[in-house]
């Protein structure tokens, strides 16, 4: 009897939570938090504003660029420096502009997500150490000396006339315990070596950065005196300002305006598939005024109209515009709510991500390999391309005079089929081989241009190119044994050109399995 009562209380609390996490509450919360982001951005207008994907992308109508630091890489006892998510473009941009600001949010009632508390601090520290090692190795330090401190070593830097210490210590926020700090510091040397052997272009970053990277944390509880805002040039480091949009006082706060009553949701932009109903950040900001002023009662219908009109518009232009399917939650049938207030979720396979504003307007050529990667939409109008390998579920048509210049492979994410990519890689590599050996320029594309197409390019580079990026039709692959280090090196090479690459672990594992003989061999 007691277990049944506990279960009923649990179901009731879940129902209440779902009723509070409505679409209007989420959008209104995002809009209110974006005002804070705009205020912070105005304090240092010279610094570029970056969104940490994907949650951070909702909190401003305009970002300079994006980055991808995962909170899981900073979770306690799971700390990681992931060479498949190096975000080197962030370091280069910070060097060029004198710093940058990164926007993210969290639902968990904390002031900062783990991506900001630990993942990015680890990233800055490892990059600083690799840069210091590079400059020392090539004699860019004049009489460098190491001075031991409680945190780590510092080296004298005399690259320019100004002389200052290159800080290689680990800078963590005060709320990270000393025990956790010590455990992270024990891993820093190993992570630095991983970066140095990954093939990352440390030289370009070392030349770009005049001062070491260092994170700073700003939340809605941070006190900043407007008449004492420091100039970035006055700091002896390159600031990576981490802006957490969440109001940490409570996960849910009742708020009232002259027109509507609504509940604030911290980190409302997170997990958009579960609440956004097909709305993307770019669509939201195009119609923000109408959505916010529509009120809770008509918000769902307003969003549905906006999403459908956008879908029709893109379909008329020949773009990929699948119908958005929305499924009701389990409790919607007996919750007693009107349809406009039901908690709904998107089917992931139907998620439209073509409108993401972080998609670039050009494809990414991978060095001098005659291999490029991009979205399917960009592929249709891409110039300088001789053949296309499309990895979309839907068949796409491309106008090429020569037959056999286009191959469509229906590949789905590893979340839905753990071997979909593996089964299709032999055909993909053979198609690439037949065209690249003729000197043709090949574009590999998928719907997002960030995951499946990246992994297909990885398989092609590993299968058909040597370690210097020269096309060898697979000779090196037949003569050597594939290891994960070389796989990471090639992935880092791709990410240097395709900065939005976000290959999933499951798809990368399928590439490794294929290269290790997990499928049929390449035919001649």
TrEMBL record:
Matching Pfam families:
Init_tRNA_PT (PF04179), Rit1_C (PF17184)
Q: Which InterPro entries does UniProt cross-reference here? A: Prot-tyrosine_phosphatase-like, Rit1, Rit1_DUSP-like, Rit1_N
Q: Any idea which UniProt keywords this protein has?
A: Transferase
Keyword set includes Transferase: yes
Coiled-coil boundaries: none
Comp. bias (Low complexity): 324-335
All copies of domain Rit1 DUSP-like, residue ranges: 406-515
Tell me where on the tree of life, at the top rank, the source sits. Eukaryota
Q: Does the keyword Hydrolase apply?
A: no
| Domain Rit1 N-terminal: residue ranges | 16-308
For this UniProt entry, the molecular function terms from Gene Ontology, in alphabetical order, are:
transferase activity
The ranges of region (Disordered) come to 318-345
Q: What name does UniProt use for this protein?
A: tRNA A64-2'-O-ribosylphosphate transferase isoform X1
Gene from which this protein is expressed: LOC107005722
């Amino acid at each position: 009897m007691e277990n049944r009562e506990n279960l009923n209380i649990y179901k009731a609390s879940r129902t209440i939570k779902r009723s509070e996490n409505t679409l209007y509450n989420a959008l209104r919360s995002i809009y209110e938090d974006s005002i804070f982001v705009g205020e912070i951005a105005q304090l240092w207008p010279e610094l570029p504003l970056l969104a940490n994907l994907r949650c951070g992308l909702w909190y401003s109508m305009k970002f300079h660029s994006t980055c991808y630091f995962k909170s899981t890489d900073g979770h306690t006892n799971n700390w990681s420096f992931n060479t498949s998510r190096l975000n080197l473009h962030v370091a280069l941009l910070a060097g060029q502009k004198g710093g940058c600001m990164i926007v993210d949010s969290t639902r968990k009632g904390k002031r900062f997500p783990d991506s900001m508390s630990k993942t990015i601090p680890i990233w800055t520290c490892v990059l600083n150490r690799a840069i210091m090692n590079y400059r020392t190795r090539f004699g860019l330090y004049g009489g460098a000396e190491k001075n031991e401190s409680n945190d780590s070593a510092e080296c004298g830097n005399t690259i320019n006339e100004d002389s200052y210490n290159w800080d290689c210590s680990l800078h963590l926020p005060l709320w990270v315990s000393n025990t956790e700090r010590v455990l992270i510091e024990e891993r820093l040397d190993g992570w630095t070596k991983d970066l140095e052997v990954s093939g990352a272009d440390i030289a370009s970053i070392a030349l770009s950065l005049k001062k070491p990277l260092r994170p700073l944390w700003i939340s809605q509880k941070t006190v900043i005196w407007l008449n004492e805002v420091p100039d970035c040039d006055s700091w002896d480091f390159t600031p990576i300002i981490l802006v957490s949009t969440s109001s940490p006082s409570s996960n849910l706060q009742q708020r009232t305006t002259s027109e509507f009553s609504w509940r604030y949701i911290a980190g409302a932009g997170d997990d958009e598939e579960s609440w956004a109903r097909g709305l993307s950040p770019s669509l939201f900001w195009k119609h923000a005024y109408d959505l916010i002023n529509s009120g809770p009662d008509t918000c769902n219908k307003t969003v549905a109209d906006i999403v459908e009109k956008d879908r029709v518009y893109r379909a008329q232009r020949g773009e990929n515009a699948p119908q958005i399917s929305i499924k009701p939650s389990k409790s919607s049938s007996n919750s007693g709510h009107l349809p406009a207030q039901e908690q709904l979720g998107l089917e992931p396979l139907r998620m439209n991500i073509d409108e993401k504003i972080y998609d670039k307007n050009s494809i990414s050529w991978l060095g001098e390999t005659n291999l490029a990667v991009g979205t399917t939409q960009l592929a249709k109008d891409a110039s300088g391309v001789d053949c296309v390998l499309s990895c979309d579920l839907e068949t796409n048509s491309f106008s090429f005079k020569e037959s056999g210049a286009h191959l469509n492979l229906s590949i789905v994410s590893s979340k839905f089929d753990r071997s979909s990519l593996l089964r299709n890689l032999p055909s993909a590599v053979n198609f690439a081989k037949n065209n690249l050996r003729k000197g043709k320029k090949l574009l590999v594309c998928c719907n997002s241009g960030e995951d499946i197409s990246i992994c297909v390019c990885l398989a092609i580079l590993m299968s058909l190119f040597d370690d210097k990026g020269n096309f060898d039709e697979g000779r090196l692959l037949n003569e050597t044994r594939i290891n994960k280090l070389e796989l990471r090196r090639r992935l880092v090479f791709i990410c240097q050109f395709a900065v939005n690459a976000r290959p999933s672990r499951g798809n990368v594992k399928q590439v490794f399995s294929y290269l290790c003989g997990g499928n049929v061999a390449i035919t001649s």
